[in-house]
Amino acid sequence: MLLNDLKDKNIMIWGLGAEGASVKTYLENHQLPKNVSVYEDKDGADRFEELLKQTDVVIRSPGVSIYKDEYQKIRHKGIKTTSSSDLFLSEMRVNHPQTKVIGISGSKGKSTSVSMLYHMMRSLGCNVALGGNIGKPLIELLDKEYDYIVGEFSSYQASDLTTSPHIVMFTNLFSVHTDWHRGHVNYCQDKLHLAHNQKVGEMCLINERNEQLKAYSQGMSNVRLYNVDDSFHAEGRELFNGQKLVVNIGDLKISGNHNLDNLAGVMEIIQALGLDVEQAVESLKDFEPLPHRLQKVATIDDVLFINDSISTAPEAAIGGMKSFDDDMAIISGGIENQQDYTEYAKFIQDNPKVKVAVTLFQCGSQIAEAIRKYVTRKDFVLIEAENLKQGVEAAFNNLKACGGTLVLFSPTAPSFGYYKNFMERGQDFINIVKGLEK
User: Fold this and answer.
1) Residue from 95, 265, 97, 87 nearest 166 by CA
2) How do residues 103-114 score in pLDDT, each as one tens digit?
3) What is the per-residue burial (b if ≥16 Cβ within 10 Å, else e) of 270-300?
4) N or C: which end of the chain has fewer CB within 10 A?
5) How confident is the model at residue 239 (pLDDT cuts 50, 70, 90)?
6) Which listed CATH number (1.10.1060.10, 3.40.50.300, 1.10.357.10, 3.40.50.720) goes with 7-78?
7) What is the DSSP letter of 255?
8) CB under 8 Å to 34, separation ≥6 — which residues?
9) CATH number of this structure's domain 295-436
């Protein structure tokens, strides 16, 4: 659907989050619709039915699941539906054909990947914009001309797109957001839907090292694997292009060896666009890591505190633990999200550098149960804390007692119910750590 299709129509925006608010402002500023109304779930069923009587098109915000019964009823009634992301992509294809859109998604690592790509392209002098879940809302980028737009797309945004970016990259695929998608299979399919409407000859980059990505991308067109030996691939703390060393993570400001896995895909994009790979990598040495993503907070009594609040899956926490060689304590827990902590616990058992684990919040008991089942090391301490402050203090004290030097906060689960979002949760961790310095 194009913006012109909304001309003189009665529009209902379902959900007034950041994206819903931006599309409302954009439509009103451009005087496109006849009328714009807003519905939020708290408004109740009666208001919903009343608005539908005078609605031609519903614009869904990302927080509104396409699996909601009410959303399915809209479609069955023949009312047209779209989203801000789909309006943007459709407009780019038809009315901005000179602009190449690059979309990056994945269960983890997409924000850092998007930011690294944008940083390098801008350093190389490209006329490029950043949008989506990071940067400006995509629809706000329609009024200026760019050669490239780099966008971060969530599974919520990708689930019902009718148009795809010209280049798509997926970092990985884990079990998250199963409630919104009503199951893991739907989540995986909805995530990969970002690339389903690509045209012949476009590019969809898949991380060869993620088995679920490879499985769910079977049969998709335009697929190219990265992290393979004859192209960009990560080995330990180093990134190679074939046999040529590209960069050592020690030369960058980012932490986490898994970021090199993602950088391999980003460099495939740089190379495919015909940009200077060596200059791009050189510019990356100035790239500052994003907050709440393996963020160095403070060093207190020779113990480094790492904030990885964006971690919402056990696999992310495993990646975090792999990223450091220090003897460490890990703090994990959030809301119950149907996660399996078997591999998380087995990783701790097989890695004696993990000396202490602190569990907390709703899924803390589930994590602790898995740890008690699989971790039998005598040099290991498990603590079940009542809140984050107690957990941080317990991790710090027990780690110092065994001579460890790193506390990793990697929650493995969403924050909702305890915090507004992962940023608020991460800031609480930072504040607690800062309190230890006093």
Assistant:
1) 97
2) 999 988 899 999
3) beebebeeeebbebbeebebbebbbbebeee
4) C
5) very high
6) 3.40.50.720
7) -
8) 8, 9, 10
9) 3.90.190.20
